[in-house]
């Protein structure tokens, strides 16, 4: 241990150490406050390159003024010994908390949102942490978190490599003289010793979030070599995430894409997923009709006429536009349907994907006849669903055990078990432009007179909206099932004159959300996807 005092700082217990320095609790006698002192090792102080890096660490930390990043007070020297004076953060580390088991979803979201905010602030300054892990996150008693140890951080405009150092707080998986970082949280490019950027921290964030939700590491093994092999080649134990909100599962998926070019790129997008998971069920019409923020610049030209392409959008995974990559598992529909059959493309959605993403149901037709086919993730071939001749516009129940559809031959709304059996009639229906199954086991669907709601077991439809000089089409429900969005098309107008409208199913008048737009679809990132003119837009 060094001298008991460094000038005005009186040293106390040792808090941690790494390949570059030792951290002590200390007392600032001049300002009468507790601080942390990081003392540079003597063998490092004689190395010109490492001393320069130590100074660089101070400059990096000083530029990060954020409530969720532990700050720096001073860089100083005493009797030939260099040291940093850092903010002392009381409380246990996230690693200590996780040693007792996984967190509740709401608790994990609160911590994850603060970590994301801290990393977003660092990335905006061109700084990559490179060793984000539970051991480098402190949990204060007031619920605030602090990200520690930017000793491995690198300003992206610096050209020199900074290999050969450990984080300040050691970990069983951190070794001096190896590629920077902790193996269990390293990105694949980091594990290979390649260049890093903000996507490296997003990978580590995905690992931390997985661990908070499950209580286990995303990538682990009996040795450091096994851990690195798991990072590079291993399969994530996705089953451990069962029961977590879909937006969180999607977020973990897009954070842990091995190809960094296809990984989620921005911490701001991470926050969108977290906000979506945290606010599910709390949406209201008033929230929707407030002036929206500037629309994100995601546009795709349509490859065909509006209604034709819109008929396919309902089957597209709603968050793929952000990640630009496929999840580790995907449902592959047959490249060629059974002989004599063709995919149904036209008015209304022709594909439905189950809430857990494991099953797709879609319409195939031959001449004027159509039928529903089902394709499960683990099965090689699609199979027909008996009794669904004349089916259009399929949609799943909230838990995925039922498929609803419009029977064009009988002009009925029906449901059929995903496990097989005869379809059951829900209600008479004269329109086939969309339906949505609510968490309260009621179904919202479009009629010539407006939107109506009926119990999924069958009954008399009750009016929700009244279509006077317009047609109400394609209803969809926001998380929680309280608010529905739909398209209102003027009776004698075109889709260029259509509006997206919101209605509170518990009562209240419909309110216009977007003008000159139609076919709304809510993505778990918190975005609204819709058609406007000849483009599909996300806002």
Q: How would you characterize the overall build of this protein?
A:
This protein is an alpha+beta fold and 539 residues long. It contains twelve helices and 32 strands. The strands form eight sheets. It has a six-stranded antiparallel beta sheet. Strands 13, 14, 15, 16 and 17 form a five-stranded antiparallel beta sheet that branches. A hairpin with a 5-residue loop joins β18 and β19 (402-407). The N and C termini lie far apart (57 Å). Mean pLDDT is 79; it is low at 155-179, 290-328 and 342-347.
Q: What does this entry show, briefly?
A:
This protein has 539 residues and is of the alpha+beta class. Mean pLDDT is 79; it is low at 155-179, 290-328 and 342-347.
Counted by DSSP, the helix tally is 12
DSSP, total strands: 32
- Largest beta-sheet characterization: 6 strands, antiparallel
Given helix and strand content, the structural type is: alpha+beta
């Amino acid at each position: 241990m060094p001298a008991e005092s460094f000038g005005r700082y009186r040293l106390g217990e040792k808090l941690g150490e790494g390949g570059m320095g030792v951290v002590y609790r200390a007392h600032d006698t001049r300002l009468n406050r507790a601080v942390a002192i990081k003392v540079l090792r003597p063998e490092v102080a004689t190395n010109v390159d490492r001393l320069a890096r130590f100074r660089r660490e101070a400059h990096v930390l000083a530029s990060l003024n954020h409530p969720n990043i532990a700050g720096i007070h001073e860089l100083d020297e005493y009797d030939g010994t260099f040291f940093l004076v850092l903010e002392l953060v009381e409380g246990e580390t996230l690693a200590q908390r996780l040693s007792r088991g996984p967190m509740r979803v709401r608790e994990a979201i609160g911590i994850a949102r603060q970590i994301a905010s801290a990393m977003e602030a660092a990335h905006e300054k061109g700084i990559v942490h490179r060793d984000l892990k539970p051991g480098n996150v402190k949990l204060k008693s007031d619920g605030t978190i602090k990200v520690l140890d930017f000793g491995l951080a690198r300003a992206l405009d610096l050209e020199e490599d900074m290999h050969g150092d450990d984080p300040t707080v050691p970990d069983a998986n951190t070794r001096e003289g190896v590629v920077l970082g902790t193996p269990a949280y390293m990105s694949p490019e980091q594990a290979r010793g390649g260049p890093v950027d903000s996507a490296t921290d997003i990978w580590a964030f995905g690992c931390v979030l997985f661990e908070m939700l499950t209580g286990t590491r995303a990538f682990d093994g009996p040795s450091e070599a096994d851990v690195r092999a798991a990072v590079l080649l291993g399969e994530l134990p996705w089953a451990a995430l069962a029961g977590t909100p879909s937006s969180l599962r999607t977020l973990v998926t897009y954070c842990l894409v091995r190809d960094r070019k296809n990984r989620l790129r921005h911490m701001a997008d991470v926050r969108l997923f977290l906000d979506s998971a945290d606010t599910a069920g709390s949406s209201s019409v008033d929230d929707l009709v407030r002036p929206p923020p500037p629309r994100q610049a995601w546009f795709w030209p349509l490859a065909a006429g509006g209604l034709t392409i819109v008929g396919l959008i309902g089957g597209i995974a709603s968050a793929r536009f952000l990640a630009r990559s496929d999840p580790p598992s995907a449902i592959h529909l047959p490249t060629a349907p059974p002989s004599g059959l063709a995919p149904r493309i036209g008015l209304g959605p022709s594909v439905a994907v189950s809430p857990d993403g494991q099953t797709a149901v879609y319409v195939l037709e031959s001449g004027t006849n159509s039928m529903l086919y089902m394709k499960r993730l683990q099965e090689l071939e699609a199979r027909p669903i008996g009794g669904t001749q004349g089916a259009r516009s399929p949609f799943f129940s909230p838990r995925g055990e039922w498929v609803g559809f419009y029977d064009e031959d009988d002009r009925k709304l029906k449901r059929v078990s995903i496990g097989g059996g005869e379809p059951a009639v829900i209600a008479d229906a004269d329109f086939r432009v969309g339906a949505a199954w609510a968490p309260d086991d009621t179904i919202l669907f479009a009629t010539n007179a407006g939107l109506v709601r009926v119990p999924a077991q069958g009954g008399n439809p009750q009016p929700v909206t009244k279509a006077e000089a317009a047609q109400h089409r394609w209803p969809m429900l926001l998380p929680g099932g309280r608010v529905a969005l739909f398209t209102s098309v003027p009776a004698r107008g075109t889709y260029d004159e259509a509006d997206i409208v919101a209605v509170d199913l518990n009562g209240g008048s419909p309110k216009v959300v977007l003008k000159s737009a139609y076919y709304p679809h809510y993505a778990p990132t918190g975005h609204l996807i819709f058609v406007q003119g000849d483009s599909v837009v996300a806002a």
